[in-house]
Protein: 3-oxoacyl-ACP synthase
Amino acid sequence: MGIQQTSIYEPEIIETAAHLSKKTLISEDVIQNKFGLYEKRIAPETMHASDLAVAAGKEILKGIDSQSIDVVIYFGSPFKDYQVWTASSKVQHELGTSNAYSFEMMNVSSCFPIALKVAKDMLMADDDIHHVLLVGGSKESMIVNYDNPRSRFMFNFADGGAAALITQEATKSEILASSIITDGSFYQDVLIPGGGSVHPVSSKVVEKKMNYIDVPDPLSMKERLDLVSIPNFVKVIKQALAKSGVPLCDLKVLLPLHTKHSLFTQLLSEIGLTEKQAVYLTHHGHMSALDPCYGLHLAEKQGLLKNGDIAVVVSAGTGYTWAATAIRWHG
Structure:
């Protein structure tokens, strides 16, 4: 069982590094070379996370009967159309997958490798499940406050949609093992402070722009995160491969989330890969949990994956969780 097909949806509006430079007061050269971002996509006002997920899902359903989908899982951004609302229900309805039940997985940016594990485990555990459709949307460009120096470094937050079809009879790839690490000591380091039960919606929340993402103490977070980030990325990659019975030297392709360029290159160095053996989303930015799914789709499109190759999708999400899932590609 494995991933039979992936799809992405790229909004038409493009925001360049030059434009971001004006908004952030960070030079275009630094944005491109240090942060690894040349441009990103922005969704129009009329499209929301669920719509972006639907758009990606429709591409998958061009090749399979919608009635054959047994489960629809939304794995995208928790910043959605509405609060206390399931995007998965709308997606299930809009895609016409009426034979499927739907639910959501929420673990911010780390969710795609975890969603692959959950889909595989469901297929293994339940003989009535044959096709699982993973769908995700991100409109997180909206949650960046460019006037807040604590969090405006998140200017790479972008919009898009992604989907993956996981099936019992997959011929294109095989999902192998996963590894997941959570360090809950980071639980308060990145959040949108307003709008929840601690600070309900009020005029104060709006006036103080508490409805945007914030990092209460960026220096403290950086000092603590720098000590564990690369080691935990490396650990989940190695553990996913070891649990799959695959040595690290057989890893051919890495499909990570979008990060600053120095972290990307350091991670590749630690696991013995070159930049040509990975997909780095310089023209897409960071789209919550969608990044590794985008990477897998682009890797196939670019011919980066060959028959028999071992690839790893890897990501990390604030909170903080690192997750990796190994894949054997058949093509």
